[in-house]
Task: inverse folding
């Protein structure tokens, strides 16, 4: 279907993650973009691009996703398209880090980036021809959660109420997900019927609602976040990491650690208290921002978790903050340490 302003449009769906992917293209020049592509659907989407004759110029992610892996890197390799994501994400592999108000052109059409943080700090809504592609900022009768990845309910309230609800009521809304089979909405509908953030909602009540949701942790977050910080490709292990470093290697050097070297456990405080590597410090994943300067001062920081996934996530997050002193134990973890019969300590600790 096309809008009245003659923009080519396709809405695609991934049933496993309830994710919408969007293709937009100029019908005359056939220059196009794809928004929030899913890695598992790469072949499907590439086939459609080829069938329609679309020259892909940009691959646009609305944010660093926690529920699926982007196909951005694959599309760049296959088509030469430029990848883009919101500037606060700091994704090191992105060709374009978009700021509020930036515009990208496809043929006669301009796509405007609108910074809408709150679900994550880098969430970006894309506006073109009376349509808003809102990612996880604004859903149909809902909104994105705010309890991880620098989420902030106050910011989300401001993004929706001050940046999105200012558009005309007839403006179309196309979300990143829908779990009820709905494909689109309008700004007017959401202002009237959205139970979390209707036009009469107060910030205080919205914050209360968001802070009381008690949602399950995204099932794919440990896989998706580090992959998406690498444009959906295998996360690059920077020069600060010793490749294939294992818990066996950590055990071998533990007694020789220098004062300027640290071992850091990125599991939850509860997991850490039950059993952890002697001399290790607890910096739970999600709280690493508080300790960045402390960690930066060490010559070397060894990161581990239960199996390696969380350590890889924290490694990627800290690396994009400029830390080059990290060693990620990404292929093993505390489970292997215990299975090997190495000594453990118990109890709470930290910086």
Result:
């Amino acid at each position: 279907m096309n809008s009245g302003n003659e923009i080519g449009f396709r809405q695609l769906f991934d049933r496993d993650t309830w994710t919408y992917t969007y293709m937009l293209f100029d019908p005359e020049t056939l220059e196009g973009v794809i928004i929030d592509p899913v890695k598992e659907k790469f072949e499907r989407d590439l086939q459609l691009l080829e069938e329609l004759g679309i020259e892909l110029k940009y691959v646009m992610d609305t944010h660093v996703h926690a529920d699926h892996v982007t196909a951005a890197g694959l599309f760049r390799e296959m088509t030469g398209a430029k990848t883009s994501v919101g500037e606060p994400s700091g994704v090191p592999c992105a060709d374009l880090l978009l700021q509020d108000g930036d515009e990208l052109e496809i043929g006669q059409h301009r796509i405007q980036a609108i910074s809408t943080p709150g679900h994550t700090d880098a969430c970006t809504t894309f506006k073109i021809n009376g349509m808003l592609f809102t990612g996880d900022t604004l859903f149909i009768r809902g909104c994105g959660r705010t309890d991880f990845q620098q989420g902030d309910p106050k910011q989300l309230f401001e993004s929706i109420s001050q940046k999105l609800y200012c558009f005309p009521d007839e403006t179309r809304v196309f979300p990143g997900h829908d779990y009820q089979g709905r494909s689109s909405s309008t700004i007017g509908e959401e202002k009237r019927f959205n139970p979390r953030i209707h036009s009469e909602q107060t910030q205080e009540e919205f914050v209360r609602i968001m802070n009381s949701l008690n949602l399950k942790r995204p099932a794919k977050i440990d896989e998706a976040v580090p992959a998406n910080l690498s444009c959906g490709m295998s996360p690059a292990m920077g020069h600060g990491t010793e490749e294939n470093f294992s818990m066996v290697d950590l055990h071998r050097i533990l007694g020789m650690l220098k004062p300027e070297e640290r071992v850091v456990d990125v599991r939850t405080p509860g997991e850490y208290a039950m059993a952890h590597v002697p001399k290790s410090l607890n910096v739970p994943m999600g709280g690493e921002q508080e300790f960045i300067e402390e960690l930066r001062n060490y010559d070397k920081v060894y990161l581990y978790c239960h199996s390696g996934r969380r350590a890889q996530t924290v490694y990627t997050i800290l690396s994009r903050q400029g830390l080059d002193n990290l060693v990620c134990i990404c292929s093993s973890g505390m489970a292997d340490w215990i299975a090997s019969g190495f000594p453990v300590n118990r109890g709470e600790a930290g910086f």
